[in-house]
Structure formats: structure tokens, C-alpha cells
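Internal QA ticket QA-208
Title: Verify multi-chain structure generation after dependency bump
Assignee: T.L.

Test input:
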Amino acid sequence: MRLPAGTRDWLPGELAAKRALEAALRAVFARFGYQEAATPGFERFDVIEAGLGEALAAESFRFTDRRGTTMALRPEMTTPIARLVSTRLRNGPMPLRLCYVAPVYRYEEPQEGRMREFTQAGVELIGNASVEADVEIMLTALEALDAAGLPDACIDVNHVAIVDAVLREVGLQPDEARVVKSLLGRRNLVALRAFCGERGDPKVQVLPELALLRGGTEVLERLLRYVPHPRVDGGIARLRAILARAESLSMGHRIAIDFALLRDFEYYTGLVFEAYVPELGFSLLGGGRYDALLGRFGGEAPAAGWSLGVERLLIALERRGGMEAAVVDGAEFLVAGDDRVARALRARGVRVARALNGAEEGALLAEAQAHGIPRVIVGGTCIEVAGGARRPVEELLA
Amino acid sequence: MSLTIAVPKGALYRESRERLANAGLQLPPDVGRKLVLDDPRSGARFLLLRPSDVPTYVEFGAADCGIVGADVLWETERSVSELADLGFGYCRLVVAAQAACGYHQGRPLPTFCRVASKFVRSAEAYFAERDLPVQIIPLHGSVEISPVVALADLIVDLVATGRTLAEHDLVIVDEIAPSTARFVVNPVRFRAKYEEVTSLLERLQCDA
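Actual output:
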């Protein structure tokens, strides 16, 4: 029996490792005051399309219900959360801090750590457009990566409005700007140079340089040579604030500015960022600010957030070794005979499996060994599978 | 951190090797059958790959960067960043047909063409753009003989000198695009190994 392309099973052990990672992430979200919310696994397709735009919505799995309404399995969580907040929580107190850990579905070519079904974990900070909100979002991302066991993961940041201002400044029309942004986002220098060559205007020659400009606050100074202050001051102030605050927490070396970082999702309006570790060729986490998204659902509230791919994080951790060994969720005791012993142990929070095939000691030890259970209890005695040390059960229950 | 570089075997190999050497990265002289090679001096690692596999290795991050023909990039549609046109390996992707058909002199194409090609995606895109319904016949080599034996009306293929076309009485009907070797990089490795990648980019470009 074959699985559909881009899907996978999770065996015990594998799933324990994933759940442990998810628990660590949920704990970080909770420590920042974020509460988990859930939305349906599928939504009306028009909701998904309103959030993601035509091109990305096209990557969703779609089906029609019996009335002919087109539905889509959610391809990401930000749009459903924006819909939820706009319709259910718009009159509530702001800011709202929401988080999620949930499966999403995309009909795209399976990539490394990106299946057609995968798990997204992330946060949404809604109802506040301040620099402080941007900083908070970045810090939650750094803390989440730390808690996941990737304290060396780095984040590159950019501000969409800065790039838009530069493109206007060099005289691009809106349709040209769209083309150039797409080339810049893919860092296609060959096509950018060709575009600039055709235009001939010396002003546009800055664009290939923009695609290669990356680093700390010094790249902001470089940028200001090409574009007058007032146009980009807001964006630059935000990037400076993020770098300074990360610096104050000794995490400044993990953040760089990259003007070619423009995420695919067209809903971003300000800050954008992506996290990575050197051993993976894909980013682990991405996010930013999308102040116009809720308005598409009648909500009109600024919002920022990020999401990460849990499976990608697991791959990164696996490459560093020791992932599965760290997580054990199997039974600690194999108990034969007296139900009261099993019950008393379980009441203490111990994981206990009941022997189903009699109480012969040798068979019990063999069974425990085969299942990786470290101890057997039979006839009032606890026996260590490794080494055979014995002690009375009363000692355990004392 | 040193770089892992995907190098295409075949037509682009010799010049790729020279350009890398000029940039200070030395592929060992006698590579024999080895496909993974290390340059102890620079610390670089080279993967010798089938050209059409280079974008895959780079996209997945198995190689940080690589050299590959633009034609392969069009065909594989992998997300890699094209940082530089290295200028060598010039050839053209063209539509060709038998001279006797007269398509090159403006005679209209059949309403439903059979098109043989190794470049299935590029061929599909070309004809779709012109609203021409065609049947693409995917082949893996010797595409030039397909019109001769009436397997196809047209071919879409790479042409360097045009000699192979001439030998099969084929003429160019239209040029789709010129192709040259490109320096490509994994988008995340561009960030993770920024100094190394931009430094190599500079050294490769000053040679162009």
C-alpha cells in the first residue's frame, strides 16, 4: 500500500521526538504570553485566495463540497488566523497574542523537509504596529530556535518598504517594480543586470548591488547613498531597533540585513525575515509584518508574525545527531500479575505496560528486552532487565 | 567555512575548471573516475556531476554553489540564485526543421506539430506562448534524426556551431534563447557563507 506523494508516517520514537520539539516550542510561546488557537483543516478557497494571492493559493489542495463550493486544505496558518481574528475577535482587547502548531498542506514539489503535508508552528501579534512589536516577534523567533536546540541559527532581516522606496527612487513603474522585486527576491543577478543594461539609466545600476548587499548596520549607510532619507527612515529605524535590541541580548551576531530577502507571500508590508542554519539548504523559519492582511477580511488591524517548519527543524537537529535517543516515551515497567501494583505505579506517573502472556520470568524478561522496557515486575519482585538486579516492589512504592 | 562546488562534466567542464583555477580553486589535474574531489590548498570540495543534476545539488544544499548552463536552469526550474553569467559555453536553443519543409522561409507550421526535444519544458513554454498546439516528444539524444525519420515535424535543441543541423539537412526556424554558463548558488548558503560566496563571485567575474 503506497502513501500519497509528499506524505509520511510517524512511528513511535520519531513521533516522540516531534512532540518533544513541539512541546518546547509551545512552552516558548506561552512564556511570551501567546495563547494557542486552532482553525479548521480546510477553509473556503476564496478565503485562502484572499489571503495568499492567486499564485500561492494555486498550490493548495482543492476540492468541492456537494453544493459545488470550492474548498482548500489550508496551505499555511497566517491567513486562517487573520480570518479568525477579523471575524471573531475584532472587537476584543488588543494586542492579541496567538500561536499555533498545526498541519498544513501544499500541492508543490516535495523538497527537503517540505512535504505536501507538514507542520507549522508560529506566532501572530495582532493589533500593534510599533517597532516594539517587530522586536518582540524577532525575539520570539530567536528564543524558539534556541529552545529547539539550534542556538546558532541565524536570522536575516529586511524591510519591504525600503526596497519599494529604492525601486520608486530609481524610476521604476509599478509593473517594472514587480518584475524587479521578483528577480531581487530570487537574487537573479544575471537577469537584474540584463534589465539594468536595457534601461541604460545610471540610476538603476544600484539594483544588482542591492542584491549583493548584506551585513550589519553598515549596509544601511550604504543604502542611504542611493535613496534620500525621508523615504526609508521608517524602515531603517525598525531594522536598527531590531539589531540594537538583539545586540543588547548578545544575539546581535545572529542577525544580518539582506536587501534581497523578499518572501514569496505577497501580504508582507514591512519587516520580513528568515532563519537558517549552515547545514540546511532551506530556511527554517520565516515571517514579518502584514498590516493589510486582516483588512482583506474586514478586520483592519496591523499584524506581524512568523512560522517555522517543524519537520525542517527535526532534519537540522537530526544532522547534529542524538535526536531520537534524547526522547523516550516507551513503558518503564512490564508488570505481570497484580493489577494493584500496576495501578499504584501509574498513579505515581510511571509508564507501565501490563504483561498479557502469563507470568513466567524468563519469557517476561525476553519480552521486556524486545520492547526496550528496562524493568519487569513479577511476584512482588522488580527485576532489572540489564544485569538482573532484584528488589522488592514495596521499595518502589514506598 | 569552505565551499562545496558543483562542476558540470561534459562540454562545460574544461572551461569551468580553468575559470575556477583562475579564481584560485584548483581541481586536481588527473581526476580519473573520482566524482568528489578536494583541493587541500583552498579547502574547496568539488562535485563532478551530470550537468542536468547541478541545479538539484545546489537547490538541496548538497553543494553550496555550482556552474551550469542557462539551458539546464530553464529546463530544471530549480530555485537557485543566478549570480553571474560566466560568458563561456555559448550556444543557442533553437527550433529547427528540415530545410525542404520551408518553415524557415515563412511557410506556416502544420496546425498540430510534433516536436521532438530533450528540452521538454522550454519547448512547451515556447509553443504555449505562441498558442500553438503541439505534441512534445521527449527524447534523450540524437534529436536531429527525428525529422529525418518522420518522428517529428520540428525539433527544439541546442546549437553551438550548427554543423550537426546541417549534416541532417535541418535549418533553424526560430531562435528561442542564447545560453551561456552561469554561476549559481543555494539561496540559504548565500547567507550562511556570504563572505566565501561573494569573494568567489568577484574572482570569477574579474575573469569574464
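Spot checks passed. The interface with chain B takes residues 111-112, 154, 156, 186-191, 193, 212, 214-215, 256, 258, 276-283 of chain A (CB under 8 Å).
Status: verified.
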